[in-house]
Design brief:
Distance between the termini: 20 Å
Family: Belongs to the TsaE family.
Number of domains: 1
Main location: cytoplasm
Strand order of the largest sheet: 1-7-6-2-5-4-3
Order of helices and strands: HEHEHEEHEEE
Number of strands: 7
Number of helices: 4
Strand content: 15-25%
Keywords: ATP-binding, Cytoplasm, Magnesium, Metal-binding, Nucleotide-binding, tRNA processing
Shape: globular
CATH architecture: 3-Layer(aba) Sandwich
Subcellular location: Cytoplasm
CATH superfamily: P-loop containing nucleotide triphosphate hydrolases
Radius of gyration: 15 Å
InterPro entries: P-loop_NTPase, T6A_TsaE
Largest sheet: 7 strands, mixed
């Protein structure tokens, strides 16, 4: 049985920015090299906040910059516990540009955290932990997770 049917539309409410980063820190306790996490949501929804919390919990000192202009921001030991690529596909014009980024090769030994995964096409990364964020009227965030089979023993956070 696929885990997405075990956990259909898992939803959490993150009441503020601190809770969003705290979710990222909690998520860091479950990740390992070879994982992929995708983060969807409109501008300002908290995608980078989750990534920053995760990176801080993996040992990054200081605030992680948004990879909007670099597209791929790599982190490696001793800066973090294991290799992490923080990826922002917002500026990608077409899905075929993905090959140039070398993300599939990096999955062997790195955690990939990908913002704006829709730019990769609808069939990209079906095995990723897919997190979607929506802003709520009270300033919080609604996080919905599509949990793949590989995360079955690690979910919920």
């Amino acid at each position: 049985m696929a885990a997405s049917s075990l956990y259909p539309g898992v939803m959490l409410i993150l009441p503020d920015a601190a809770a969003t980063e705290a979710f990222g820190r909690a998520l860091a306790t479950r990740v390992r090299p070879g994982d992929m996490i995708t983060l969807e949501g409109p501008l300002g929804a908290g995608k980078t906040s989750i990534a920053r919390g995760l990176l801080a919990a993996l040992g990054l000192a200081g605030e992680a910059p948004s990879p909007s202009f670099a597209i791929v921001q790599p982190y490696a030991p001793p800066e973090v516990d294991f290799p992490v690529l923080h990826v922002d596909l917002y500026r990608l014009d077409a899905a075929d540009q993905l090959e140039e980024l070398g993300l599939e090769e990096a999955r062997w030994d790195s955690l990939l955290v990908v913002e704006w995964p829709d730019r990769a096409g609808p069939d990209a990364w079906p095995d990723a932990l897919a997190l979607s964020l929506e802003m709520t009227p009270d300033g919080g965030r609604r996080l919905t997770a599509k949990v793949p089979e590989a995360w079955e023993q690690r979910w919920p956070i």
